[in-house]
Amino acid sequence: MWLASAVLVFAILSFNNMEENAMNNNAEKFEFPALPYAYNALEPYIDAQTMEIHYDRHHLAYFNNFLAAIKGTAAENMTLEQIFAKMSTFGDAVRNNGGGYYNHILFWNNLSPNGGKPSASLEKAINETFGSFDKFKELFGNAGKTRFGSGWAWLVVAPEKKLAIGSTPNQDNPLMDISPVKGTPILSLDVWEHAYYLKYQNKRPDYVEAFWNVVNWSDVNARFEAAMKK
Ligand code: MN
């Protein structure tokens, strides 16, 4: 048991380091991190087959296509954060695949079978911004449910250090200069059909409700603290 825990902790630390590298470090960036839990870890809320296809095919394809898209361009020597900040100067292949590469790393980290609960400081900020925790869930959920077609819902720390909810189409994200919602994303929800169709078919609202059972609040808390200090 302790061995399994040690391996899990090591896997999570490695995963976070790789995310850090992808965001900040030019030398060893752009790796494809391991999923930080088993495909079936989020059952029954997100099924194993969906997780396997989502990670192993969709996410991997974004990663490979992103590498191909930046080859020989200025983006090759930039961090993801620098690329996103100048997104409007790149083409659709970098935008769609760079977004898909980053967004899914964030999403996997935002999920966990034992995610704890919001910290006192995050809960306070949520209550101050949205009125109550239930109201926040309603607004965030609606951002996902009402996104037409494919896209994402976001909770961000906006540049003025306030929480904000928004949604983006396709693989855009709030770090991109072309995004209508801007800031540091701390909680993400993938509402592409590939994220839920095998289990929920056309019932996206059921998937959005189930999502709350597997939110990794420990991760969201840490991202909130880091973003507020930035
Ligand atoms: Mn996806």
Describe the structure in your own words.
The protein has a 3-stranded antiparallel beta sheet with strand order 2-1-3. 52% of the residues lie in helices and 9% in strands. The chain has helices spanning 2-24, 48-70, 80-85, 92-110, 120-130, 133-145, 197-200, 204-211, 217-229, and strands at residues 151-157, 163-169, 184-190. 34% of the residues are buried. The longest helix has 23 residues, at 2-24. With 230 residues, it is mostly helical. It has 2 domains: 2-25 and 47-109, Fe,Mn superoxide dismutase (SOD) domain (Helix Hairpins), CATH 1.10.287; 120-229, 3-Layer(bab) Sandwich (minor pseudopilin epsh fold), CATH 3.55.40.20. It is globular, with a radius of gyration of 17 Å. Bound molecules: manganese (II) ion. Manganese (II) ion is lined by residues 54, 58, 104, 190, 192, 194-195.
Arithmetic mean of pLDDT: 91
The helix/strand series, from N terminus to C terminus, equals: HHHHHHEEEHHH
CATH topology of the largest domain: minor pseudopilin epsh fold
Which CATH class of the largest domain applies here? Answer: Alpha Beta
State the CATH architecture of the largest domain.
3-Layer(bab) Sandwich
What separation lies between the terminal Cα atoms?
A: 38 Å
CATH superfamily of the largest domain: Iron/manganese superoxide dismutase, C-terminal domain
Helix content: 40-55%
**Poorly predicted residue ranges:** 1-14
Can you tell me the overall shape?
globular
Enumerate how many helices there are, as a single number: 9
Radius of gyration: 17 Å
Instruction: Quickly count the domains.
Output: 2
Bound molecules: manganese (II) ion
Largest sheet strand order: 2-1-3
